[in-house]
């Protein structure tokens, strides 16, 4: 009689494991896909990845949702069925299930639960918290980590760059790598960024530049002749001015006008 009652006592734990597996797989993937599509449709996905990658992320989210819908047509627990025959030799299964769990299996279960809780927390945070650009503090903490070398750095070094479309990142490459700085003296610029302090009584115009996503974001900074107390740190401004070459060969921006503005919808350069 005991052999026939064991499958019923194991039904609830098995169902719980199946539900947990489905949430960790299909559930989390579905939520992330919905969030991705929502951000893509509202134009806020640019706060996390470069514009060139938005279409790929949205396409992947659609494919994931289609797969999730299809998987929901399967009976609960079938996604973990690898084709084994579970319909025979119940006596052996009972003995195996009755054996105490090994420490390794207990550790695996604990790791899975911990990872599931963390992943669920991240997904819930993505749903609850509004998308936001990277903080000014992060940009300031990364200043000086490496020499600014952004798009067009090779052209700058060769002295053949067309500066008419340069942003803060491009000019940061000029300031860092140009060997003939006099060639850029007198160039007019219109640049947008936020104010960050320097060690001297001056300020930098700063912009975060990303290649693929915010994980690889690096700050591009340009020295601007502005009174350090004129603007608060983090204030977004539009600077119209001229590039000036100093006697020692260094470059800086001499502004004709500095206008405070709100943070732009797309705060990054690429």
Brief sketch in words of this structure:
The protein is an alpha+beta fold and 270 residues long.
Description of the molecule:
With 270 residues, this protein is α+β, with helices and mostly antiparallel strands. The protein folds into 2 domains: 2-128, no CATH class; 137-260, Nucleic acid-binding proteins (OB fold (Dihydrolipoamide Acetyltransferase, E2P)). Helix content is 44%, strand content 16%. It contains 8 helices and 5 strands. It has helices at 2-9, 11-42, 51-71, 90-98, 103-128, 136-142, 153-158, 168-177, and strands at 188-197, 203-209, 218-224, 236-245, 251-260. It has a 5-stranded antiparallel sheet with strand order 3-2-1-4-5. Strand 4 and strand 5 form a beta hairpin. The longest helix has 32 residues, at 11-42. It starts with a helix and ends in a 10-residue tail after the last strand. The model is unreliable at 1-9 and 82-99 (pLDDT under 50).
Search tags:
OB fold (Dihydrolipoamide Acetyltransferase, E2P), DUF1980_C, 16% strand, 270 residues, disordered N terminus, alpha+beta, membrane, transmembrane, 2 domains
């Amino acid at each position: 009689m005991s052999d026939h009652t064991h499958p019923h006592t194991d039904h609830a734990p098995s169902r719980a494991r199946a539900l947990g597996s489905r949430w960790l797989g299909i559930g989390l993937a579905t939520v992330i896909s919905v969030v991705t599509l929502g951000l893509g449709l509202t134009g806020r996905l640019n706060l996390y990845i470069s514009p060139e990658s938005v279409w790929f992320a949205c396409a992947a989210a659609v494919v994931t949702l289609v797969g999730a819908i299809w998987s929901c047509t399967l009976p609960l627990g079938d996604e973990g069925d690898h084709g084994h025959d579970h319909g025979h030799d119940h006596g052996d299964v009972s003995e195996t299930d009755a054996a105490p769990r090994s420490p390794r299996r207990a550790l695996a279960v604990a790791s899975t639960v911990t990872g599931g809780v963390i992943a669920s927390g991240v997904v819930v945070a993505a749903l609850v918290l509004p998308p936001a650009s990277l903080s000014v503090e992060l940009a300031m903490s990364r200043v000086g980590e490496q020499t600014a070398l952004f798009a067009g750095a090779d052209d700058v070094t060769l002295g053949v760059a067309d500066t008419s479309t340069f942003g803060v990142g491009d000019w940061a490459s000029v300031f860092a790598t140009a060997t003939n700085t006099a060639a850029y003296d007198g160039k007019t610029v219109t640049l947008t960024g936020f104010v960050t302090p320097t060690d001297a009584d001056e300020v930098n115009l700063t912009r975060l530049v990303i290649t693929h996503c915010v994980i690889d974001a690096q700050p591009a900074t340009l020295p601007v002749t502005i009174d350090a107390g004129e603007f608060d740190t983090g204030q977004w401004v539009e600077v119209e001015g001229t590039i000036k070459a100093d006697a020692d060969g260094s470059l800086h921006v001499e502004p004709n006008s500095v206008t405070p503005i709100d943070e732009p919808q797309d705060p990054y350069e690429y």
